Amino acid sequence: MTDAELERALAAVDLPRPGYWQAQYLKNVEQLSKPQYTMIVERDVPLQMRDGVTLRADVFRPDAPGKFPGLLALSAYGKDCQSAPIPAQPINSWVFDHNVEAGDIEFFVRRGYVYVIPDERGLGKSEGAWNGPFSVQEQEDGHDIVEWIAAQPWCSGKVGMMGISWFGMIQRFVAAQQPPHLAAIFPYEAANDLYGVAYEGGVIQPFWWELEREIPAHTTASESEKLYSPEELEARVNAIAATKDIALNTNYVRLLARRKTAFFDQLLHPTNTDFWARRRSRDKVGKITVPVYTASCWIPFFKPFMQAVWDDMNDPTLNVPKKAAIFGHHIHTALPGPPELKYEALRWYDHWMKGVDTGIMDEPPIRLFVMGTNQYRFEHEWPLARTQWTRLYLRPFGALTPLPEPTDADPDPLVHRPPIISTERNSVRYSTPPMSAPMEVTGPVVLNLHAALDQPDATFIAKLWAVGPGDARFPLCRGVLKASHRALDAEKSTPWNPVQTHVDPQPVVPGEVNEYSIGFPSISYVFRPGERMELEISTCDPIDIPWHHRMNVMGPLPSMTLTYYKLYRDKDHASHLLVPVIPIGAPHG
Prior knowledge:
- This protein is α+β, with helices and mostly antiparallel strands.
- Helices cover 21% and strands 26% of the residues.
- Keywords: Hydrolase.
């Protein structure tokens, strides 16, 4: 298909040309679903679950006879806000809402899909009690809702799922329940390990603290209150409340007293126990039998979203037709209605639920946006087979070089001053010289750091930056690790993907030098001539995440203990970055 033919075909179906669509792989564009229907909205439609509990859903369907595929958007954020008639909002807008993530409802309904958005148990007008995020109950209800949709007279019998973040994360769980009429899923910005969301690198994230207050629950049921006797529960609450990081944070003390479901349960489970295993879709994907398109965008500060993409692609137990994509812009910063989601999802679901050969399964399995050049390309595997794994060593005077330190150089000091006594935030930086030629870095990045502490525990925050002339800084990725959680899972870890167990935290012996393997989110960036790669190591990162005004609590909880670090980078402690360098101009896709 020529470019001119493609433009005519897209005009016929009233679609723009997304920058990531390549003409040589597109088929039957003129047969993509056209916007030919008006929309009927039915509010608070009753759906009965297997145990007799009735949920309420909003149903958006074409105002026409016939049967149409269904799309389920499921989360605990409340159905009513998902159809608010507002345009996409930038992150600094006062009406930006990170919970409006169900997708562009009218876009799909006008093209012959039925959109169903329920309130989960205990929310809105739905009966029952909300059991917290991604409970077994939520997973089973997802199965039942899919089957309810398929049984409706307006449904063709094929159902998919839509939405990002929570709406994406629940999709793997529901698919693993194997509802007979689920045809395909499209998890977007969807982590597959809730422990990694709640405790990034073992460090508590105040994630559910903020999100839970925006969940319209009328009745909740803490799983911890079911798991433990009143005496054991009280003992666990008291033990958590006595820890210094919690005891000196009145917000957390207050939440422990209120026992709000999600964050209360999170606080009571600081290690990777069975509580989190029930909420880990990564271990359930072997039960999925439908096609999976897993996608994200480059997110510098949050590894779980992107790691799930590569886990899906590389997991042999997920033996279904599957695709992956990393798009170029952070979708959470323009809600509702991210265009990457709807255009690619239309092509995906037209293929699997309407029988249109869109060419989407003829493409190489991975679509990748390369930052720096700002271009899309296709790849066949991850990490890339042509990767040249390169060590960049931490050196004196803040240098980052391919050669290790040959001497007994003294360590670099770093001091963490807790937020209860200071707003000062210290860091140590290491930088390459300015690039003399373009250098592509595509893949996972790891910091192997040798360090000593004067306390039994501490937090490491490592950031990678592209620094241009004039010190213009572009964030690439961030890794987080709690020192006591340094133990690796030998079976699951690779040199480019260290996986900590997070099961049995081991306090640090003060003064002892340990190696800490800190994994970063994967990146794809071409450093241009004049740019430098900079590694920044710090101890806290509470408010630097580019989220909206109410989310300044996002980020790892800073320690409340004054701590002195020594960062070693001598001939016996070769601290280094492992960087995936890709030869410029090598064949790909």
